[in-house]
Design a protein that fits this description.
Layout: E1 3-8, E2 10-13, E3 18-25, E4 32-39, E5 46-52, E6 58-60, E7 68-73, E8 78-83, E9 92-100, E10 115-116, E11 120-125
Parallel strand pairs: 2-11
Antiparallel strand pairs: 1-3, 3-8, 4-5, 4-9, 5-6, 7-8, 9-10, 9-11
Length: 126
């Protein structure tokens, strides 16, 4: 059973930076994809970024390109989301998600992932 435990997040002023971490356990030998999603109050959960097992393939939603960086350290079973130049519209609860066999056409869809972290709040003030 895969378990994802998130850390990081918090409150920051616009233009600031935060790093989220997602530590996985129980995922031995899984050639997986890990993604970050976010959900703002009253809105649907939306895709933010994803990374393939090798770390060589990354994907971002347009609104975070150039500001956010997803990375992973497979030796530590941890995935990171470095968020720079944060904007108030980035305020949301952020979730990491994991699964194997995620095809490219589904990588931005929450339904493609069976395992989820507990969520962490990111608040950006103007």
């Amino acid at each position: 059973q895969v378990q994802l435990v998130q850390s990081g997040g918090g409150s920051v002023e616009a233009g600031g930076s935060l790093t989220l971490s997602c530590a996985a356990s129980g995922r031995t030998f899984r050639l997986d994809t890990i993604a970050w999603f976010r959900q703002a109050p009253g809105k649907e959960r939306e895709f933010v970024a994803a990374i393939r097992w090798s770390g060589r393939r990354t994907y971002y939603t347009d609104s975070v390109k150039g500001r956010f960086t997803i990375s992973r350290d497979n030796a530590k079973d941890t995935t990171y989301l470095q968020m720079n130049s944060l904007k108030p519209e980035d305020t949301a609860v952020y979730y990491c998600a994991e699964d194997t066999g995620v095809i490219l056409s589904s990588i931005r869809h929450a339904s493609a992932y069976d395992y989820w972290g507990q969520g962490t709040q990111v608040t950006v003030s103007s």
